[in-house]
Structures are given as C-alpha cells and as structure tokens.
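tokens incoming
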C-alpha cells in the first residue's frame, strides 16, 4: 500500500506536481470528466484532453518526466441518465484509457439520479446490468472498478452486496470511503463491521474522517448529521484509520490510500495545506508500523 491524494486538493499548492511535492507524495487520483479530460499537470486551472491516442501518449510522457503516478480515475457517472448508452460508453472510454496508461482502478459512483422512486431490487439489477456491459466491452483489460459507498444508495450494504454478487467479477469491487458509512448515520461500531465485511472486495480507497461528539458515535444518526461541522483531519476523527489499513492489509489490499479530506473548508488556506501535509504524514506513519 502507498499514499495518494485526490487532485481537487492540489490547486492550493499551485499545481499537481507542486502539491504532490509539498505533501511528500508522487501518486494522485484524477477526475475524468465527460469530455475525456483530466486536470492539467502543467496548470491546475486547465484541463488536459485524453480523447485520442496522441493526447494520451503526451499525458503519459508528462507523467513519466514529472514522476507522477496516476492511481485511479474518478468518475461521477450516473446510471440513471436519460441517455444511458452514452453514459456507459463514456465509462468504457475511461476504463480503456486507464488500461492504456497502466492505471489500476476506476472509481464508479453509486448514485443514480432520476431513479429514486425505483424499488431497491430494480436499482440493484439495473446497476449490475450497466456494470456487465462495461465489463464485456473491456474484457481484455485488467483495470479494476470500485463502486464507492457514496450517497444514500451506496451506503446501503445490501445494495453493495447485491450488486457485487450479481456482477460476480474479480474486476468489480468497492471504492471504500472510510467515513461515508459514518456520514450516512451508521453507529461507529457498525461502520467498522461493514468495512471489515467488504475488505476482501475493496479495489480503491478514499480516506477521510469525522469527529462526532461522544454521545453521537454509537447511535443511528440522520444522514449527513452536522457533517460540515464535524468532518475532521485524519488524525482527529473517530474512525480508527490504522485499524482500517490493517484490515485492508489482512484482506490482501495493495493499492493506494487516497486522501480525501473534507474538513478543509473549516480552515484558512495555510491551515489547509498543513492539514493535508499531516494527513499524508499520518498515513505514511501507519504504513511503517504494519
């Protein structure tokens, strides 16, 4: 295992390379948008196209020269889209590009907009059918796909279990967000139980934390209760990150631990940078003890 960071945290440092250097990292997760572009490695206010082989080769060369490792593409897909074929084609393009670049994982979003009135079983089958089409179109690749526990649907363990069982592919598992089950309202002890349950199927991670008042930790809370107030730097939260990483290791996980710190909005710019640097140091400290 090794430490990475989401691209959205790096502009405050002046760019992708500058941010990685400031945090003592070389690995980043990049958002892959519907124009098949990612944050520019040269100027974080611009996007870099990956829409054709020439642009992908140019990007790969930049990564090589700057010694930047892309650990995953983050997709904000919507399998409830009106033009579902176009949505699936776009996800396929991301997986193929990841395969060409040697990127090991793609994050798949569990949220399906415009289908909230569907019964759970229909949503499960629909989502599994979408994943099956993507798998069929990329069957020659080893790129793994992690469905994130994101939003109301994705934080329902029954949904995740059922989709993974229906898809039944070693290439499809979970992007484990360490705090989202807690954000959803699950008691802390249940959060740890859920993470342990899914550990063997985790393909990718987003590491963040929450520091709720003691009397709120072991009760069922409403979804998102006071999240903006209690989202915390990694060291300060209730979730035992070392335990999570140890659990992942025991399950055979070898990929990145991707920093996604949603407490940053509580701090000024300089404190945000300090928090991110400490997040990276904290995860590296844990890895040295395992």
């Amino acid at each position: 295992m090794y430490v990475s960071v989401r691209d959205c945290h790096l502009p405050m440092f002046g760019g992708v390379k500058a941010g990685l250097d400031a945090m003592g990292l070389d690995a980043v997760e990049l958002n892959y948008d519907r124009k098949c572009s990612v944050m520019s490695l040269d100027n974080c206010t611009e996007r870099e196209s990956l829409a054709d082989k020439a642009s992908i080769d140019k990007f790969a060369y930049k990564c090589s020269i700057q010694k930047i490792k892309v650990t995953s593409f983050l997709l904000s897909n919507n399998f409830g889209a009106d033009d579902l074929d176009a949505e699936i084609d776009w996800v396929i393009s991301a997986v193929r590009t990841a395969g060409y670049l040697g990127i090991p994982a793609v994050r798949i979003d569990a949220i399906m907009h415009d289908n909230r009135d569907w019964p759970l079983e229909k949503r499960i089958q629909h989502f599994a059918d979408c994943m099956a089409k993507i798998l069929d179109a990329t069957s020659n690749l080893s790129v793994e796909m992690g469905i994130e526990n994101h939003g109301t649907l994705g934080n329902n363990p029954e949904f995740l279990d059922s989709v993974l069982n229906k898809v039944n592919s070693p290439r499809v598992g979970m992007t484990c967000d360490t705090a989202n089950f807690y954000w959803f309202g699950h008691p802390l002890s249940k959060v740890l139980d859920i993470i342990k349950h899914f550990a063997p199927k985790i393909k990718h991670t987003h590491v963040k934390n929450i520091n709720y008042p003691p009397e709120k930790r072991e009760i069922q809370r409403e979804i998102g209760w006071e999240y903006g107030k209690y989202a915390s730097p990694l060291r300060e939260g209730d979730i035992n990150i070392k335990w999570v990483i140890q659990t992942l290791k025991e399950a055979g996980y070898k990929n990145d631990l991707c920093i996604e710190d949603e407490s940053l909005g509580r701090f000024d710019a300089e404190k945000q940078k300090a928090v991110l640097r400490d997040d990276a140091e904290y995860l590296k400290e844990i890895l040295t003890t395992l």
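note: The chain is about 45% helix and 15% strand.
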